[in-house]
């Protein structure tokens, strides 16, 4: 259960103002067993063998703990922060760089939100608007095209996000060249999420590398959802990988089944076109805990895992 605390209220000296400030502790615990051939974790985990899995390609998500806070400044203006670090349930270690998942602060109001620091980038949120597994570690779209070539996070990002306008929103982020190996970068999304429809356009460009983009849409009806996408991604060597994705999911009470596929139309990353796919099954034990099993066929490798995830 999320634990909301009245931040520093015991100080008393600024009682009225501090009563409008809060800090929340949250996190995820995710562990299981499986075979990870693609992107196997380092350390004492053996590549491609049955093993305990934590923070691997075949976990639903990475274990983490974070703290976020918000202060109501009045007049519709708020300020906040988010710090988050990963935890390895295999050995209890935290990330080598503490708070490397999130380390940012923001200022927001009716006009939108400005955020500064390390954070999930606009490209990630644009893809999350339609991706069927909830951007799980074994997402076939994310693993095939690396979130449109940008990965999920940016360092030193300065960003602005619009308020929601009838389901429409946009976010643009910028990294100064002095903060990115002398190569400035921009990153943006355009999202429409209203009722059964979710559409997201993501685009990003680093100086000297061609523009990356991804366009996808999801339509939900009754207990089912269908999604389709097209992605063009370039790596640091300016090699291109592009292709389309198509998939569907169905929910039957507490059980959900998802099948998602990608097909390369061009692949200079490996020199060979692949059809990749993921099959995922999840069973909700409560609103915060579920068990899952997944099989991921990725660039000629077979990966699978079963596990349990708890959100708090």
UniProtKB/TrEMBL annotation:
<dbReference type="GO" id="GO:0006811">
    <property type="term" value="P:monoatomic ion transport"/>
</dbReference>
<dbReference type="GO" id="GO:0015288">
    <property type="term" value="F:porin activity"/>
</dbReference>
<dbReference type="InterPro" id="IPR023614">
    <property type="entry name" value="Porin_dom_sf"/>
</dbReference>
<dbReference type="GO" id="GO:0009279">
    <property type="term" value="C:cell outer membrane"/>
</dbReference>
<dbReference type="GO" id="GO:0046930">
    <property type="term" value="C:pore complex"/>
</dbReference>
<keyword id="KW-0732">Signal</keyword>
<protein>
    <submittedName>
        <fullName>Porin</fullName>
    </submittedName>
</protein>
<keyword id="KW-0626">Porin</keyword>
<feature type="domain" description="Porin">
    <location>
        <begin position="7"/>
        <end position="302"/>
    </location>
</feature>
<keyword id="KW-0406">Ion transport</keyword>
<keyword id="KW-1134">Transmembrane beta strand</keyword>
<dbReference type="InterPro" id="IPR002299">
    <property type="entry name" value="Porin_Neis"/>
</dbReference>
<keyword id="KW-0812">Transmembrane</keyword>
<feature type="signal peptide">
    <location>
        <begin position="1"/>
        <end position="19"/>
    </location>
</feature>
<keyword id="KW-0998">Cell outer membrane</keyword>
<keyword id="KW-0813">Transport</keyword>
<dbReference type="InterPro" id="IPR050298">
    <property type="entry name" value="Gram-neg_bact_OMP"/>
</dbReference>
<comment type="subunit">
    <text>Homotrimer.</text>
</comment>
<dbReference type="InterPro" id="IPR033900">
    <property type="entry name" value="Gram_neg_porin_domain"/>
</dbReference>
<keyword id="KW-0472">Membrane</keyword>
<dbReference type="Pfam" id="PF13609">
    <property type="entry name" value="Porin_4"/>
</dbReference>
């Amino acid at each position: 259960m999320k634990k909301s605390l009245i931040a520093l209220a015991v100080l008393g000296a600024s009682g009225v103002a501090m009563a409008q400030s809060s800090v929340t502790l949250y996190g995820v615990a995710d562990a299981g067993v499986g075979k990870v051939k693609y992107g196997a974790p380092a350390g004492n985990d053996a590549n491609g063998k049955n093993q305990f899995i934590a923070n691997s390609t075949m976990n639903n998500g990475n274990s983490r703990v974070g703290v976020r806070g918000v202060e109501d400044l009045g007049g519709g203006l708020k300020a906040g922060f988010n710090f988050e670090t990963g935890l390895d349930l295999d050995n209890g270690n935290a990330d080598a760089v503490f708070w490397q998942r999130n380390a940012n602060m923001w200022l927001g109001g009716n006009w939108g939100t400005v955020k500064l620091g390390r954070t999930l980038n606009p490209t990630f949120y644009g893809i999350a608007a339609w991706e069927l597994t909830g951007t799980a570690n074994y997402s076939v779209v994310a693993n095939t095209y690396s979130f449109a070539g940008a990965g999920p996070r940016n360092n030193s990002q300065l960003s602005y996000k619009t308020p929601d306008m009838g389901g429409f929103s946009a976010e643009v982020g910028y990294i100064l060249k002095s903060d990115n190996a002398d190569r400035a970068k921009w990153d943006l999304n355009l999202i429409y999420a209203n009722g059964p429809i979710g559409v997201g356009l993501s685009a990003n460009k680093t100086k000297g590398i061609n523009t990356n983009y991804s366009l996808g849409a999801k339509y939900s009806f009754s207990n089912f959802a269908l999604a389709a996408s097209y992605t063009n991604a370039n790596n640091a060597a300016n090699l291109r990988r592009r292709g389309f994705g198509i998939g569907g999911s169905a929910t039957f009470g507490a059980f959900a089944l998802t099948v998602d596929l990608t097909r390369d139309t061009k692949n200079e990353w490996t020199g060979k076109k692949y059809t990749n796919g993921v099959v995922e099954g999840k069973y909700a034990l409560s609103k915060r805990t579920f068990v899952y099993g997944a099989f991921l066929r990725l660039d000629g490798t077979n990966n699978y895992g079963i596990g349990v995830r708890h959100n708090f």
